[in-house]
Specification:
The chain has 402 residues and is of the alpha/beta class. It is 41% helix and 20% strand. A hairpin with a 2-residue loop joins strand 2 and strand 3.
Amino acid sequence: MKHMLLAGAVTLASTAFALGASAQTITLGAAVSQSGKYSTNGMHTINGYNLAIELINARGGVKVGDTTYKLAIKYYDDESTPARGAELAERLIKQDGIKFLLGPYSSGLTKAIAPVTEKYGVPMVEANGASRSLFTNGYKYLFAVLSTSEQYLSSAVSLAAEMAKKEGRDPSSVRIAAAFENDPFSQDVRAGVLDDAKSFGMKVVIDDSLPKNLSDMTPTMTKVKALKPDLFVVSGHSKGAATATRQMAEQNVYVPMVAMTHCDSADIVGKFGKAAEGILCAAQWAPSLTYQDDLFGTAADFAKKFKEKYGYAPPYQAAESAAAVEVFTKAFERAGSLDQAKVRDALAATDMQTFYGNIKFDKNGKNIAKPMVLYQVQNGELVVVAPTKWAQAKVVFPRKRN
């Protein structure tokens, strides 16, 4: 996979020059995981970036003042390692002369790169670093199109409270089991879950850290089986979601409501079939949403274009990555200049709708205009069940035993 992605990056950059000798090029930089534990989501990130670049160039590129530019991306593999990501960001800026960066995959990698881009005054639009701690450092050159991490599983806690009420129980009677990776993103998800549970008076009966390699959750599963919680929440990126789904089936662990992050990008339906039924999946985006823009069309149009190009349905990581490129493009146009400070100011003034959702940044670069959604696996399909405004179907509760 690594070699295939690198080859794709070279082809994309070359295409920009091949479109015409008179066409000038804006080359964005991106250190993205093409190997290591985040390589799957790194692939989704790169595919989202590349599709946006392809469509923008096919429409003639980006007009900045009186000059029209094509876009290209220079990629490096950060190997899913924060230190490597920071090193490569510095290389892109200092050695390669890149003036604008797209973000990496994961909060940990984004947290490592952000001080570098801030140091050199390089605007970075990122799509896959949701940790709320990214937006408490006063960064002026960091902009994130996605919702922040503490919101990821809040809908699941609220849904558990709602289901308890329907059963005639007080929401405070809900007992929660939780397992989280020890990384910035997942720990922020944990903080959000604990805050939400406290607001309802719910008891967290299990609060475990996932093992570093995310490959065996047996100790947690043993506790869940013994304590029989009402809600089980898991956040461990794609590998954690896959391990949890597999081991619940293997070890015959049943919980009435199960909610995870990254279970769509982990393809739990394709990999585990019936074992995935009823699982709730936190998501930044869904193709059924009614957002649209003049580049991709509707969310459904983007999903169709993406599947035609890459042969699989786009997880939200791909959608938000494409949206990040689109936001950069509009900022270049509004700035009328490639001066980094002017582009930064144009990014700060962003207030737009994309196929991915509404995007408006607060003073810390956080998107304050887009809520999370919650899928559920129903009959082998991911359908939106929350928020109610965009729900495709009613939630199945309790989850059926497999």
